[in-house]
């Protein structure tokens, strides 16, 4: 089993070099593999500043230098092959699908509006629905709402009503087979991530939703509120990293004489390498994943056979 550690943290701005250094040092302390940051407050021209010797890949949805912004950082030790991304132009969410330890993951980082806005979650989960088939789904970030007000927010009566946003999230959780990874193991525990001076209350508005199928192999922890006004939360997933080919793939070399096929494969392979090549990725992993990604193009071989 191979552990994969994800950290979600509303950092409330990371433009200051001193603050960025503190946050990166804390990620190192947590042994983070993948980091989900909210409220980065970075402009489009600044997003590459998040790349470091430790975190060699960064994916961001930016808004402006004063508000919003989300970033996903990938540690250089993670065997990561990107498949596709969805970037919200409003800087509220980013979705990436990638091969990690030979398994397909859909990872979502979100910073939701701080008002009751179910339309935002309808839009978000509509995007997520395009990636969930045959994929391990992990949704993390600052949801700006609680799923169980009586225990997820202090000083709240037991009969308080759910927000419209929370109702919408719960409905999609049922539809997509997602669970709150911390609450499923801490059913009645009160632990909080954020203090609201306006409402004079603590709440757990930062959390992970994960595919129900991986819950037995996960562990979620809430850490102290430091550096930012939110606490970071970690999700560790134990992954079976053994890789077995279903069958031996054999390339029909006669297709190399077909100019159309040659053009298609050269273009697809160049696009794949442009998105995914890194000295940190082993050639064997790059090759095996590349074959999987362009599988649809390789099936052109079967089409040609039928034409003969």
Task: Quote the distance from N terminus to C terminus.
Answer: 47 Å
Within the largest sheet, what's the order of strands? 3-4-2-1-14-13
Q: How many DSSP H or I helices?
A: 8
Largest sheet, strands/sense/barrel = 6 strands, mixed
| SSE arrangement, N to C | EHEEEEEEHEHHEEEEEEHHHH
Strand percentage, roughly? 25-35%
Number-wise, the strands total: 14
Shape: globular
Radius of gyration equals 21 Å
Structure description:
With 308 residues, this protein is α+β, with helices and mostly antiparallel strands. Helices cover 27% and strands 28% of the residues. It contains eight helices and 14 strands. The protein has helices at residues 17-29, 118-128, 149-152, 164-176, 259-276, 283-293, 295-298, 300-307; strands spanning 2-10, 34-38, 55-61, 70-75, 80-87, 93-100, 103-111, 136-142, 178-180, 194-196, 201-203, 206-211, 218-222, 233-239. Strands 3-4-2-1-14-13 form a six-stranded mixed sheet, with no helix packed on it. Strands 5-6-7-8-12-9 form a six-stranded mixed sheet. The longest helix is centred in the last third of the chain and has 18 residues, at 259-276. The chain is globular, with a radius of gyration of 21 Å. The model is unreliable at 243-248 and 300-308 (pLDDT under 50).
Short description:
The protein has 308 residues and is α+β, with helices and mostly antiparallel strands. It is built from 8 helices and 14 strands.
Give the SSE layout.
Layout: E1 2-10, H1 17-29, E2 34-38, E3 55-61, E4 70-75, E5 80-87, E6 93-100, E7 103-111, H2 118-128, E8 136-142, H3 149-152, H4 164-176, E9 178-180, E10 194-196, E11 201-203, E12 206-211, E13 218-222, E14 233-239, H5 259-276, H6 283-293, H7 295-298, H8 300-307
Parallel strand pairs: 1-2, 7-8
Antiparallel strand pairs: 1-14, 2-4, 3-4, 5-6, 6-7, 8-12, 9-12, 10-11, 13-14
Helix pairs in contact: 2-4
């Amino acid at each position: 089993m191979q552990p994969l550690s994800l950290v979600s943290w509303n950092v409330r701005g990371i433009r200051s070099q001193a603050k960025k250094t503190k946050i990166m040092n804390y990620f190192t302390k947590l042994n983070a593999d993948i980091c989900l940051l909210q409220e980065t407050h970075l402009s489009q021209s600044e997003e590459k500043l998040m790349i470091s010797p430790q975190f060699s890949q960064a994916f961001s949805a930016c808004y402006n230098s004063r508000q919003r912004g989300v970033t996903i950082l990938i540690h250089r030790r993670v065997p990561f092959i990107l498949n596709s991304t969805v970037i919200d132009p409003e800087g509220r969410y980013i979705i990436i699908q990638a091969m990690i330890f030979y398994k397909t993951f859909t990872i979502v980082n979100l910073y939701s509006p701080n008002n009751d806005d179910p339309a935002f979650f309808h839009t978000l989960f509509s995007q997520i629905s395009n990636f969930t088939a045959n994929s391990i789904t992990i949704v993390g970030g600052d949801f700006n709402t609680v799923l169980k007000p009586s225990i997820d927010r202090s000083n709240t009566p037991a009969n308080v009503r759910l927000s419209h946003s929370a109702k919408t999230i719960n409905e999609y959780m049922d539809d997509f087979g997602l669970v709150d990874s911390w609450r499923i193991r801490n059913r009645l525990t009160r632990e909080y991530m954020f203090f609201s001076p306006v409402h004079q209350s603590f709440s757990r508005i930062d959390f992970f939703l994960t595919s129900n199928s991986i819950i037995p192999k996960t562990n979620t922890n809430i850490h102290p509120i430091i550096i930012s006004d939110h606490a970071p939360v970690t999700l560790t997933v134990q992954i079976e990293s053994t890789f077995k080919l279903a069958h031996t793939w054999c390339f029909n070399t006669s297709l190399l004489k077909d100019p159309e096929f040659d053009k298609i494969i050269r273009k697809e392979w160049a696009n794949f390498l442009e998105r995914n090549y890194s000295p940190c990725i082993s050639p064997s992993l790059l090759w095996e994943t590349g074959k999987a990604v362009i599988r649809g193009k390789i099936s052109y071989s079967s089409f040609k056979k039928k034409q003969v």
